[in-house]
Amino acid sequence: MKILFLGDIVGKSGRSAVSARLLSLRAELQADFVIVNGENAAHGKGITTKIYRELKTAGADVITLGNHAFSKGEIKAQLDQCPDMIRPANMEPEDIGISWIVKEVCGRKVAVVNLLGSIFMDAALESPFAAMDRILPEIDADIIFVDLHAEATSEKEIFLHVYKDRVTAVIGTHTHVQTADEQIRDGCAYLSDAGMCGSFVSILGRDIDEVLQRTLNKQKTHFMPSEGPAILCGCLIETDDITNRAVRITRIQERPE
After folding, report:
1. Which distant-in-sequence residues (6+ apart) come within 8 Å of 209 by Cβ?
2. How large is the angle between the packed helices 11-29 and 49-58, nearest 10 degrees?
């Protein structure tokens, strides 16, 4: 089985790139299942039901979120309209939405789990380890994919070593910068950060001038997303059809011309 994952989609630029490219990329890579992180899809912060439908139409099977999951207030009341979208298990409000989902793919059960890191992340109610220990006994699946939305690389690597024998993939999101440490560890695919789908000429997808004014001149700004052509980042994970363990992970990075 081949699982395609795309990192944080940032603003209109990222959405446009994903909408234009995902179906053809899925076909080229012969991906059986597609997961995307949409937590920055709505003007750089949060997501809406309209954007959820756009991403589903673009070819996403499951959409994960992060610390900005509920930045757009409307989504709290409309999550029931987004059945294939999951929010981090260890953040408030705990009683809205779901934090893991199981889908039937190629005759196998594929679970997708969404967690927040707790280091340098003030939205986490508990550690991702405590949350995963709580969730794992409930999951009945052949393949378990974890989107660990976290700041600290160390926390992501620790998570890999704790759960590598019990999950199939641990892929980091949140920093918007793709790392080059893809690996298979005891049948578990790992990448510290998948990177972002957002404006290439930017600062983490944000407008450069505005970020500089806020940083250097202490101006109050809104961190507007940059609207230039987008870079597309993610990874492709291949699993063994007999063991359901990961056998290959390939980084994906497509820069605009």
Report:
1. none
2. 30
Q: DSSP alpha helices (H): ranges in the chain?
A: 11-29, 49-58, 74-78, 128-135, 153-163, 208-217
Token readout for 226 is: 């940059």
Omega cis (within 30) before 88 = no
Cα–Cα nearest to 120, from 155, 160, 159: 155
Superfamily of domain 2-254 in the CATH hierarchy: Metallo-dependent phosphatases (3.60.21.10)
pTM: 0.96
Residue 174 has pLDDT above 80, yes or no: yes
What does the domain layout of the chain look like in residue ranges? Answer: 2-254
Q: Which of 43, 68, 149, 174 is catalytic?
A: 68
Contact between residue 235 and residue 194 where contact means Cβ atoms under 8 Å apart: yes
* Per-residue pLDDT reduced to its tens digit, 114-167: 999 999 998 999 999 999 999 999 999 999 999 999 999 999 999 999 999 999
One-letter identity of residue 231: I
What is the Cα–Cα distance from 144 to 244, expressed in whole angstroms? 9
Active site residue 68: yes
Per-residue pLDDT band at 218 (split at 50, 70, 90)? confident
Extract long-range pairs of 200-203: CB within 8 Å, 24+ residues apart. 200/228, 200/229, 200/230, 200/231, 200/255, 200/256, 201/226, 201/228, 201/229, 202/226, 202/228
Of 76-80, 176-180, 198-202, which range is least confident?
A: 76-80
Local structure of 248: helix, strand or coil:
strand
